[in-house]
Structure formats: structure tokens, C-alpha cells
Amino acid sequence: MAARRTALITGASRGIGRALAEALAGRGYDVALVARTASALEDVAASVEAAGRRAFVRPADVRDVDAIAAAVKDASAALEGLDVVVANAGVARGRWSGKLTYEDCADVIDVNVRGAVATLLAALPGMLERGRGTLVGISSVVAYRGVPKLAAYSGSKAFLSSFLDVLRVDLRKTPVRVVDVRPGYVATDLLEGRRPPGTVDAATAARRIVRGVERGAPIVTFPWHLAALMRLLRCMPPALYDRIAPRIA
Ligand SMILES: NC(=O)c1ccc[n+]([C@@H]2O[C@H](COP(=O)([O-])OP(=O)(O)OC[C@H]3O[C@@H](n4cnc5c(N)ncnc54)[C@H](OP(=O)(O)O)[C@@H]3O)[C@@H](O)[C@H]2O)c1
Asked: Are 160 and 143 in contact (CB under 8 A)?
């Protein structure tokens, strides 16, 4: 059995975060679970404990910087340090840009950008002090190129991936590793019932993420064909992208 390790996951109440908590528990991690819905977190905690691991539950909103700092501090004290911290909590609001409102964008920026930054930066000093740790951000393949009707979401993930890119470079001579996860479609509530071709289930996504984190991969992206398509689209000149993007989306 793998040695005891610890992890904190935001957005652990359902979807990818829940699957990650369960996959990490299966790999020998004690897990701190953060999201707003306390009852759902208790359910995930029961599943972690059924795997023989400890669970620390903290209902908190990642938009509240002080609450996230306290959650990271308390989880670290309870689990005796955090080896892996995953900024996973995220929201998506799809709308054609002609009808986009500030409110559509504000929540996406607050959760996906401010919440992720608050989580990662709350964990970093403890990792530097302990001499080990891995910061993980759950970005998206849309970080490669923004997709129609997802202006704020695409922008938030481009920010997160770029932020993680610089953290990785800046921290390369420290014991802290940085992993940028860019999934394609994962069957969770975020997709609101849509299941485009290539959609993977949350458990499969979690296994790939855990494998990448344990390998120390700088970027973890899947499925490979969607990631390859998005990389190709990134190189495409606007005149061509503008014509084909609506059809691809
Ligand atoms: N599903 C996909 O196809 C896909 C693809 C690429 C990337 N991603 C990314 O993967 C991450 C997880 O998404 P998912 O698909 O698992 O979505 P999901 O099933 O909707 O889960 C979102 C999670 O985020 C939490 N959350 C939302 N707002 C929060 C807030 N203000 N404070 C704390 N927690 C909050 C939710 O918990 P509460 O509501 O209980 O707070 C929930 O646990 C996101 O960053 C998303 O952008 C998803």
C-alpha cells in the first residue's frame, strides 16, 4: 500500500472534485474536502473514510479569501501538512457575447480566477516551509483557445494556466511542484446534461489527474485527440478560426 499522504481539494462536493477525493483516498491520501454544500461534503467524507483514510470537512466559499486561507490552515493542522492542494472549484456560464452581462462574468472570475489564486497562494508558504508539496490547478482545454459562448470561462482558464505556468518556472528550484490540468469534456453537472463526443466520466478523469500529479507532469490534458485539436486551433490565424470555431463548438 502507498505511504500516507495528504491532499486538499476545493469543489470536492461533486463532479471531478469528488472523484478526485475518492481516487486519492484509494492511493493512500488523507483528504481535506472544501466546497459550499456541507451535506454533500459529509457524503464524500464517508466515502473517503470507507477507503480507510481520514477526511477533514470544511464548508467554505472560495470567493471568500479569508475563509479559504483558514480552511487551508486548519486542514494542514488537522492532517499534519498538505502534500497536494487542488484548486478545482469552478463554474461556467455560457452565453453568446452579444448578450453577455457583467454579472455573467463576475461569478466566473470570482470562483475560477480569484478562488483558485486564493487557494494556491494560501497553500504555498506551508509547502515551502515543509520542503515538499504539489500545487494543482484544474484548468481546461479551453485555455489553449477560447471557444464561442464561453468568453468569461475561456478567459478564466487561460488566466489559470498562464498563472500556473509562471508558478512552475518561478518555483522550479524549490521543492514545490506545479501541475496544470486541462481536461476536455467530463460528465458532470457543469455540462448541464450535454455529452459531446469524447466525454469521459469523472472517475476516469480523476485517475488521469492522479497519475499526472504523481508523475509530476507539468501539464495533464485529456482526451488526447481533443487536446491535440485545441493545440492546433491555438496556432490558427483569426481569419480561419473565426469561420470554423462556431461549427466546432
Ligand atoms: N466538466 C467538464 O467538462 C470540465 C472540463 C474542463 C475543466 N473542468 C473544470 O473542472 C472543475 C470541476 O468542475 P466539475 O465539472 O466537477 O463541475 P461541477 O460538477 O459543477 O462541480 C463544481 C464544484 O465546484 C464547487 N464550487 C462551485 N462554486 C464554488 C464556490 N464559490 N466555493 C466553493 N466551491 C464551489 C461545487 O461545490 P458547491 O456547489 O457545493 O460549492 C462543486 O463541488 C472546474 O474548475 C471546471 O472548470 C470541467
From this structure: yes
Is the C-beta atom of 230 inside 6 A of ligand 1? no
SS3 content of the chain, % helix, strand, coil (to 5): 55, 20, 30
Full-model pTM: 0.97
Read off the CATH number of the domain in which 203 is found. 3.40.50.720
| H/E segment holding residue 180 | strand 176-183
Range of the domain at 129: 5-248
Per the structure, the count of domains in the chain is 1
- Among 1-5, 11-15, 79-83, 164-168, whose mean pLDDT is lowest? 1-5
d(CA 77, CA 57): 13
Ligand 1 pocket check for 138: Cβ under 6 Å: yes
Position 27 scores a pLDDT of 96
Mean pLDDT of the chain: 96
- The pick from 190, 194, 220 for probing ligand 1's pocket by mutation, whose C-beta has the most ligand atoms within 8 angstroms, reads 190
Atom of ligand 1 nearest to the CA of 87: 45
